[in-house]
Amino acid sequence: MTVSVILTSYNQAKYIHQAIDSVLNQTYTDFEFLIWDDASTDNSWDIIESYRDERIKVFRNETSKRGIHALNKGILEETDGKYIAVHHADDVWEPTKLEKQVAYLESHPDIGAVFTNAMAIDENGATFEDKDHFYYSIFNQPNRSRYEWLNFFFYQGNALCHPSVLIRKECYDECGLYRFGLAQIGDFDMWIRLCMKYDIHVIPDQLVRFRVRENEANSSGNTPVTRIRRMNEHFIVTQNFSKITSKGTMRKIFPRAEKYMEADGFVPEFILAMMALENNSWRDVKLFGLSLLYELINDREKSRKIKELYDFDYLDLVSLSGKHDVFNVEELNNNVIRLFIDCGEGFSGKNFLEQYVSPHDKVQTFVFDLTEQSDIRSLRCDLLDESCIVYVEKVALIGYDGAEIDLMPELRTNALIEAGDVYYFDTEGPQIQFNAIEQDVLSGCRSLCVQIKYLYFGKEALAECVKELKHENNKFLKPLLAKDNHHKVVFFGASGALEKQFDSLLEHRIVPDYICDNDIRKHGQLFRSVPVRSPDEVLCQDGNFYVLITSSYIDSIKHQLQKYKNIVKIVSLTDIKEQFLKKAIFIHIQKTAGSTMVDLIRQTYGNGQVVSHGDFVDTDRNILKHKDIAFVSGHFGFEYAAPLIKDRFSFTFLREPRDRVISLYYYARSSKDKDSEPLVTLAKEASLEDFLVIGKTRPEIATAIRNHQTRQLAIGWGGTKTYRDFENERDILEVAKKHLDMLSFVGLTETFEQDRDIILRELGIEPPAHKVVVNATGERLQLEDLPQSTLSVLDELVNLDNELYYYALSKRNRI
Q: Apex CA 284: angle with CA 280 and CA 290, to 5°?
């Protein structure tokens, strides 16, 4: 027997047919199929028993023991295959999944497990379209070495799809089974332990359809219970990294740990603690780091060692413990949402449920369990203990059968202003109540689901928005519009994209008086509390109008409004948007980081507000001609960029110098450009070491590989100075450092996703939820794979870049 498939199921009668059929329909047939029901209370077991296939073995727990019981018992006692595949009862496999995975493992005996990418689907099996959702693309990952995966796990978390795995059974013998007590991230715990010993592979095909349930109904869904449990488990799971004891392994997992690698000693716990505390967004990982330091400081021998090696003692620990708010003390001081429940005695402080509100600006889902409440008369939701502005996406009662009762039409609030589904609260007790709900309806519901996006917290943020809203009569269109308040604002949008366009208006604090639509079926309706009317019905009123139009509709609507030209001022949403764009300049040094950033910013700023790269070739070298462009980026030097840097957010990216040169070599080798370019030609003809040795003697190549980052920051394209204007190399380095200090932010390719998000947020752009890389280099040798002779040449070529890079490391967190 080659493969043992284990499918775990609990109350998945709606989907289990699809899950089972997707296994039985595999093109690869040498498998046994264990189906393990966890005491389901629906008709799942009847469906399971209806199958007649000799490959199927069925098991049923008398009481619920969760999926981990079935997995461990199945692996340990019931499976005969040399490979184990895990499946979930609400997910679906593509027919060729096992065939492709078995073929890969058979031909790669050094690989411990093979995963696949996954496509997210909704309740009904359609492609999941919510791009902001965590599961939209998290399971579509590039391949990484096991060390790179461990680094990713440490800083980012899990991104491997459990029902996609095919793993050698012997890996469970070497790494252990799934650990009991981990209900949310037991698979993540396994992947960390697996990568400590084995390399893994991800097949890029989407061979699993991972179902994302409504109302966060997945066992891994984003609910208060799972969020709390996941954080507690994550702290436990992170302790797997304590098994790292060698310098070599530490270097490979954490390249940034190099600065702690002293020649005369090595304390792995200290380095791991520093990695946990530096640039890590996981609070529990920071707690893990502090815990390691507490243990070290109270170990006499190790305490002496870290003082000797790193000049770190208990006073430094005391300082660190006051800087890292691992328990979210400050942010959670007032950030609590409460549901008050009236069971016949009115609302009181005795009967309420509460959940913590995260400070981020995404839609948050709160599910309040009502199963232990009896004789419910009414409900009231207190959003915070301070004033705020919120966007309410959904409020619904959830029945025991899963059916929803929409309460949005029944909302009553104490908001100062209601603008569609956006509520402006100037009180320290913002509340949502509901019009009378029949008591039998309340008694038939198991929970209340509230989905809210907190736009602003506190009086200062609220006052800023409400002040404008009250005094400007909902007109936030300055400086595009006139100063008077006597114009009505009318919005013409595309019906299919109206919701997205309307959200864009709210982001720019624009609340229209009317929405115009040529579809007569929509006339008389409300959209987010804004009336929908025909153009003639609105524009025949007395007064003047500002008409907002998406750029794609300007020509057709201008023609339609010709007869109203004396009372109408037409404004493009693109023009409005450009007024809110923060100006920035990007000195583009790193190809992958640079291309990715420009691509992401172009999506928000638009082509007309971005210039980059080729826009500066064969020009008169006057950057000021681009002063009205919001985002300027190019492979120019600091001197050329200087006229725009003063009044803009300025940034660049640096890369570990040796790694940059290696990456450049492999990029050139894979380039499809014509071979007439000297660097490309040499890279394709020579080995890496020959490329470096020959290249450093040829000026046209040396400029790209010899201290390139230092030169570009000190001199670079478009400037007046040249290399010969400096008496020695040290002078060039000092100028580069000076210029680096003048930038708003310096990112690193090694921490690209974290630094990318900092920059995007500074520019008012929501970072993508998934990894986005453009123009990345493919497979290549790593530093640890190179002979000493090659490393010596590299060190000679990047001596200044090395100093600049570590100088940048010391200047982090500038924003």
A: 80
